[in-house]
Amino acid sequence: MAHRVTNRRRHVGLQQLSAFADAGRTFLGPVKSSKFIVDEESHESVVVSSTVRLLESLDLSSAVGQLLSEAVQAQHNMYRNGTSTLLFLVGAWSSAAEECLHLGIPTSLIVSGMSEGLNSCIEEVTSLEVPLHNVFDHIDETKTFSELESLSVRLCPFLQIPSDTGLILKDCDLEDVASQSLTISSLSGRPVKSAKLFRPQATVDADKNTSQTPQTLRNSLLADSRCRQSVLIHSRHCNRVASDLWTSKPDGVLEQHGAAAPQAYRCGDVVELAVGLSHGDHSSMRLVEGAVRLQHWNASVRRGSRTVPFTFDISRVFTCCLPGLPETLSCVCPGYVTIVSMSSTTVLEDLQNQPLRVILIEGDLTENYRHLGFNKSANVKTVLESTKKLQQDSSEELWSNHVVQVLIKFNVNLVLVQGAVSEHLIEKCVHSKQLVIGSVNSSVMQAFAEASGAVQVAYITQVNENSVGSGVSVTFWRSIPLDVGDGISRMAIILKTEGINLVTVVLTSPVTAQMQAKEDRFWTCAYRLHCALKEQKVFLGGGAVEFLCLSHLQILADQPLNKGDQVCSGGLHNTSSWLALSLALYRPTVLKCLADGWHKYLSTLIFNTANYSSELEARTFIQHHLQNATDSGSPSSYILNEYSKLDSGVFNSDISDKLEQIPRVYDIVTPKTEAWRRALDLVLLVLQTDSEIITGLEHTQIKSQESEGFLFL
């Protein structure tokens, strides 16, 4: 990518976007390929497996690179999902915009046509939204966690992941509700249960009494997909086939005319939802599900008989990375898991399993710390240089003795500090049998304040009896010394108290270089489930919405432009310029170029699953279904039918007798559509800026050596 040749006679900014996007093609789909980024000067390398880490490691000093980085960071900071989609579509739509320019289409028409097409797609894909309702109602609190069985996840409506890709779920139990520790064990070899996520209750009840044949199961799944279908009656772009057969009820459930309407269906199990949102990363999603269930169990204990709806509070979930340990030790624990030095081992042995009194310090716990606005001037000297160090040592010693006396006075055994802690103070506290832990997250501090009754203070001098909490316990996570890479041995400990709303996910890996990627994958799954539960709806996933966008744009491009449609096309009909007259001529071409971006996305997605030998073969596969969807007259209905026809010829022949092993894939709604918007906004911004720069050069006739390079300032 660093040596990619750019054509200086064309739009350099769009070419740069395409070059950056090509580096992230392997991050689409559940089977991702990691990359090694090598520094040309130091020859040091780093392994990355996500778009965010990729852009962090690249030299993005150009203006286009900075814009791309900001767009990806904004998506990542908001949703922790959709960055790979954003990066790929930026490249695909940059190429589409370049193609439009090559065909002589004015920039203003490219902008209006692409904006219209994407807005229409976002409106269209609402028909593939699936509502979620009360997914936690059927959790049995008296039993251990439900096990996620070995399920082969369907990637897209027209593709089945091969069974040998290694995407197998592992068993995971809540072994002891009292200790509340969720662990990962060996691979499951048990029979697979039937997925009941979005099935009519009548069908679920019938399954308990009668055994279904594959044919009856296929018929019931076909009925389920029609139940899920949303009705869009007043679309100005295309009419739905047989839309009059369905009526939307107030609660979002569809009812069929002229036939026995199935009962209202609901999402009855969070396990099925987690499988659908795992996107192949079952081990990470299993840990997320464990954190959700642990929060749900804690919430049930706290609220007692009160009927308060449960919400997944992701701000009270934390990770603790322990490299060098087997992956089987990854687990979910209640409370706060952190790492302390081996010098604190003797203190921990004395304090273990005892109720401790705790104080919480908001800032740093150092002698020279002052709250913001009260720091002394750094350039003011009051002592001679020769005696300065002696003065500092003496001052810190006096301050440390004072802190220890305060802790002894209020019988405090544990100190949690949000900022940094003086090393000299830690050593003194070890001799006094007191444990001091620094760099504690603010949400952790708040959780311990709520559960223990402690009040956070800024300075140790503010500590009084009312600010001291009680009831905190400390235990060793495992009696295994840890080496995080600096040669210093440490131990992992668990801090918790009764009623604390805090969950820590312990992530382990024998390969230190994979630790960052493992943590990133966990948070991606966590935010994916959090967003789905927050919005109470998901998309039919695995490429379904992108396929619908592709087919819809092709239908839209073949339709004549009506007067009512010009409003969303930039309002060019209100002017008498030649641009308004050219809108009807250029609009189909712009929409088809936009649709080609979706085509590239789907073909790359399918090719990355290793089911096809080339992207050309994948594109042919998509084109076949695209033609079928167009011939059907209703692409959304075609997609829903393909999701239900499990015996379709496009699936592997060896799964015909294992229909119950195929759960559906789901996508989160808002992050996906926002990734589309951000990608197109960035492309159009660069397109228009490039156009202004090129136009300016034509008028000013700037001729210099600098004009031969990148002109983006």
Plain-language structure description:
- The structure is a single chain.
- The protein is an alpha+beta fold and 713 residues long.
- The chain folds into 3 domains: 12-130 and 546-606 and 614-627 and 671-708, GroEL-like equatorial domain (GROEL, domain 1, Orthogonal Bundle), CATH 1.10.560.10; 133-303 and 521-535 and 634-667, no CATH class; 336-374 and 385-501, 3-Layer(bba) Sandwich (GroEL), CATH 3.50.7.
- The protein is 43% helix and 13% strand.
- Strands 12, 13, 14, 15, 16, 17, 18 and 19 form an 8-stranded mixed β-sheet that branches. Strands 6-7-11-20-10 form a 5-stranded mixed β-sheet.
- Helix 4 (83-102) packs across helix 16, helix 4 packs parallel to helix 19 (669-700) and helix 17 (615-632) crosses helix 18.
- Mean pLDDT is 74; it is low at 1-6, 142-267, 386-390, 564-576, 646-661 and 697-713.
Fourth-level CATH superfamily of the largest domain: GroEL-like equatorial domain
Strand tally, please?
A: 22
Cα-atom Rg, whole angstroms? Answer: 30 Å
Helix content: 40-55%
Amount of beta strand: 5-15%
What structural class do you assign from the helix and strand content? Answer: alpha+beta
